[in-house]
Each structure stands twice: as C-alpha cells, then as structure tokens.
Amino acid sequence: MQTIFVQFKCRPGRAYAVADGLVEAIEEVSEVYSTSGHYDLIAKFYLPDERDIGHFVTERLQTLDGVADTFTTVAFKAFGRG
C-alpha cells in the first residue's frame, strides 16, 4: 500500500466544495483537512502498490472542479505509538 499526501490550492470560494468532492468521489481518500497557508486543503490517500501515483493525481484529483493546483508528498514510513 502506498500513502500519499496531497495539498490542494482551490479557486476562491471552492475549498469546501472540493473537500466534499474528494470525500464523495475518491474512494482512496482517508482524511481531508482544511489548512492555513499556501494551500487550502491537505488530504491523505492510500493507493495499491501497483497504482501509478502520477496518473492518479493528474487524472483523478487535478481534474476536480475547483482545484487550481496540487502538491504531492509520498510517505515512506509511519511512526507512532503502539
């Protein structure tokens, strides 16, 4: 399983609609948060190992209505208690 985080810059007034669209339309999404700073949202996705991250981001995420820009981070290892 691949874990990626994608930050979204949304068109003005569209951040909540983009967040709703991610939750409704993208089954690979785990969590979506609104954020401050250069990007409006950050979302965590789990993709199967054979899934091409580039195609997923450009074809499924960047094409959502209201998305102006994205920034993708690939996660390698999760650290935590337990």
From TrEMBL:
Coiled coil: none annotated. Pfam families: AsnC_trans_reg. Signal peptide: none annotated. Residues 7-77 form the Transcription regulator AsnC/Lrp ligand binding domain. InterPro entries: Dimeric_a/b-barrel, Tscrpt_reg_AsnC/Lrp_C. It comes from the Bacteria. This is AsnC family transcriptional regulator. The lineage of its organism: Bacteria, Pseudomonadati, Pseudomonadota, Alphaproteobacteria, Hyphomicrobiales.
